[in-house]
Amino acid sequence: MKRNYRTKSKIGLLALFLIFTQVIFSQTNDEVQLRKIYDVALDQGKSYDWLNYLSNQIGGRLSGSIQAQQAVEYTKAELDALGLDQVWLQPVMVPKWVRGTPEFAYFETDPGSTTNVPITALGGSVPTPPKGIKAKLIEVQSIAELDALGADKIAGKIVFFNRPMDPRQINTFDAYSGAVDQRSSGAREAAKFGALGVIVRSMNLRLDDFPHTGGMDYGDTPLDQRIPGAAISTNAAELLSATLKLNPEISFYFKQNCKQMDDVQSFNVIGEIKGSTHPDEIIVVGAHLDSWDLGDGSHDDGAGCVQSMEVLRIFKEMDYKPKRTLRVVLFMNEENGLRGGRKYAEVAKKNDENHIFALESDAGGFTPRGFSFDASDTNFKRALSWKPLLEPYQVTMLVQGFSGADISPLKNDTIVLAGLRPDSQRYFEHHHSDNDRFEHVNKRELELGAAAMASLVYLFDTYGIETAGE
Amino acid sequence: MKRNYRTKSKIGLLALFLIFTQVIFSQTNDEVQLRKIYDVALDQGKSYDWLNYLSNQIGGRLSGSIQAQQAVEYTKAELDALGLDQVWLQPVMVPKWVRGTPEFAYFETDPGSTTNVPITALGGSVPTPPKGIKAKLIEVQSIAELDALGADKIAGKIVFFNRPMDPRQINTFDAYSGAVDQRSSGAREAAKFGALGVIVRSMNLRLDDFPHTGGMDYGDTPLDQRIPGAAISTNAAELLSATLKLNPEISFYFKQNCKQMDDVQSFNVIGEIKGSTHPDEIIVVGAHLDSWDLGDGSHDDGAGCVQSMEVLRIFKEMDYKPKRTLRVVLFMNEENGLRGGRKYAEVAKKNDENHIFALESDAGGFTPRGFSFDASDTNFKRALSWKPLLEPYQVTMLVQGFSGADISPLKNDTIVLAGLRPDSQRYFEHHHSDNDRFEHVNKRELELGAAAMASLVYLFDTYGIETAGE
């Protein structure tokens, strides 16, 4: 337990004794407070009810949609009802991309002999021409393979990116990182060689029939050279690949009429409890309120939103008066723009606010395993010193690494950024697909995540961070 | 890394150096072997296919049922196909309890105004009379409350045990332990005060409509004084309790025609790979092949069976030759008798076999969090020394505690007993109910459990245990 960093300086025996007794006392008090947090979360939790509403009454809430606006209004009203010191909407302009009518695709082995396959337009994709695109397919496993094939083999075809996520990865986010370049950059790269479109194997470790959307980036590809991209379900990707091995001459047809509209007005939703002794030190707990339009966005990231709201509700319920200012921030537009995260950091900087700690939950509402920290070694060690307090709650994985997209613009030399790390095994079965549904969120797992977050917020509120100057 | 316990003795510098290099080498080799185990389990796993057959082609397999016999034959054939050194059936007589026709229950608020509620007979219960039982209800929260009320308040009534599992427990098995006495002893205790029957709130942390069965024990209650017991779904328990508060005079009706038959012949299924250098030291990995008759027994304990089989299959696939003899044991009759576990230990003792390590998986096919050990401090410390090897696989919870029911009869002064500890949050939503279904088992989570088990078996095979005499 290396919690009291003041012991570094030279101090007398009496001071040592006083500090020692204080450490003993505060340790016991910390244990009591964490137990209270968990009791409130597990016995009187509100997060599951909120998520039920957000998922089943509002549903998928892509930036710029009516549902996104409904989610803003709903969560603001719920935060208002908590009796926080202040609740407000922070305006932010967001991109608006719409899917249009359902996509349609098939492959044709012989003229007239077609097999329909489930696809979904990638977020941000251009549409196909109104009559769709029909062309021969070329299957590749990577962008490197695409480059090696070159224009001769690619021009005039539809490129089929089919590298699976690696099942041997223990953390499924590592498997995602190892495959997602096909989705994010595939269309941009294939266009360079004259491809007509790209079909990407869904980012899903399981074989099933759900196509998974997700952001793609055309970079500086001129508007008239952009080609449409769609994801195909893993089952259909397997079928297509097997069919191509039998007959490389099959053709593929797909049609989508998605569209990028003008930016529209939206909001980050913010609520805060003012700090009692260090009101100028701000702690943020947050998640993103927008989701993709498939499914209802329960895991990505409705869960994170209701957990973040629950953190402040738990403290109100416990009648805990934070020393620092605690803020819940529901960011708009993480999925296809990060405008909300950037806006929040921009306003914070303009107002010369001092953020000491920000915690994000954006990895699903599963049993929490731990947290990952983007922080100085000193502050990471401080977090590690709290491990014995978190272990009784099976929160044991405290590691250095990525925190979260929405809080990343807050990064500076002193702030501690952290991300909740739930068990990752089932996440990519749901992520960005129609299979991201409320029924796949477990009440207890969701609540345990909220309690773990509240515990870490409590500890940073109680002990603060070490700033560079100290 | 405190793996080499020989460093305790006085040794020269050269020996120290040799041992040091050996430790370094074996550490690296251990890392390589564990990675291989996980690669085979996650990339070429067979456990999920086996479970699919066991659950969907055979289904629930209560001791003495045709399904239990089918499960014996199926798993033996699959073990035969692995090319182990020996596969055999170990005869064991098991109790046979049958549910009969579906149970039926309702409560009546006014004459003729009834509400049906889902119940299931507790395993081992006597039937109601053919016409059922109808009586006033008395709700209690505990056996202590029952005792305090006494015969005056209890005689002639149906006792309704309604203490919920405590949602504040982090490990749901602790919540189970804190509530299950109502199910196991409720009927026995209520009979002492002249109750006509007992209805027990299902052991389920979630509010839903599934009644959960499970074993009950009449102890030495004479046959003619035994009263029937049934579980009621948590939703119906809540409804019943609320209704009783409005009107304590409501009556309850239930009917069940379950029956205890004569014992029948069954089998433990056993397969082994002979040890190359210490064939007389036996390592067991096992689970129970029987299940309750509701649902298909996927989590309890089909998952453990296929994981145990997978451990030996992984070693065959890796072409790993164990030093010790590795045995997979699929125990019969854990749920309502433990006859298989007792028989296995009895035969092992008769044959003077030397079991050094036994590992059981009987807590569901969820993401593995760690293992609990019933072992000497020295051997527990040895297991702890392997933590750095297991941590990359997120297997971090190595604790002392209960191992497993089926291996418990093997307990002696030297053997190391251990149980796989998967994430427990969702287990009791499925346990002993029609909601224990294949669709609720996740392929990766199941495979990660098998790989964790194989890793621990590998380590005990490589390093052995410290026996009392050393």
Automatic annotation (TrEMBL), chains A, B:
Domain of life: Bacteria
Signal peptide: 1-26
Domain Peptidase M28: 268-455
Endoplasmic reticulum in keyword set: yes
Coiled-coil segments: none
Keywords attached to this entry: Carboxypeptidase, Endoplasmic reticulum, Glycoprotein, Golgi apparatus, Hydrolase, Lysosome, Metal-binding, Metalloprotease, Protease, Secreted, Signal, Zinc, Zymogen
Pfam families listed in its UniProt record: Peptidase_M28
InterPro entries: CPQ (IPR039866), Peptidase_M28 (IPR007484)
Compartmental location: Endoplasmic reticulum; Golgi apparatus; Lysosome; Secreted
Subunit (UniProt): Homodimer. The monomeric form is inactive while the homodimer is active.
Protein name: Carboxypeptidase Q
